[in-house]
Amino acid sequence: MGRDKALLEADGVPLWRRQRDVLRAAGAAEIFLSARDDQPWLPHASGFAAVLFDGVSVGGPIIGLTAGLERASHGHLAVLAIDLPRMSPAWFAALLADCTPGVGVVGKRGEFFEPLAAVYPKELMMSGWEALVRGDFSLQHFIAAAVAEGKLRVREIAAADAVLFENWNEPSAARPPPHA
Known about the structure:
This protein is an alpha/beta fold. The chain has a single domain, classed as Spore Coat Polysaccharide Biosynthesis Protein SpsA, Chain A. The protein is built from five helices and eight strands. Strands 5-7-6-8 form a four-stranded mixed beta sheet, with helices on both faces. A two-stranded antiparallel sheet has the order 1-2. It has a two-stranded parallel sheet with strand order 3-4. Helix 2 runs antiparallel to helix 4. The mean pLDDT is 87.
């Protein structure tokens, strides 16, 4: 993208703050920030229980997910990507309502899971570490295995909710403001 997505603004608010507030409004009891340690804005990022640093340059989001599962003091971990500026607290509230002890919920559109706006049970922590040890960094593989094991339920993403998953992965001079 050429710049730090966390600093892009939606309705005048940096995305890191917006996503923190979405999780808080959905009822999250503790909120972690997964980030690289070289991001200069981190000292100004407040309101998090902890910052989980990406200690490995390869591996992608499964590293932060696994670290969050390890650190979480509750039975479930809600994960929200920084680049989903239209995501709403209502999505997470609906996912949480479908969770049961040891079972989380992930959305799916067509053949693909939406792993970065999902709720994972703490019981998936070892599966995450095992995937990392194998060098399998694919969240699609990780989720498919968790669904097969009965540790994740699938929620089909309705056409009306598809807008929640529009992401900001490409630079654009004129972004329409999100309406959460």
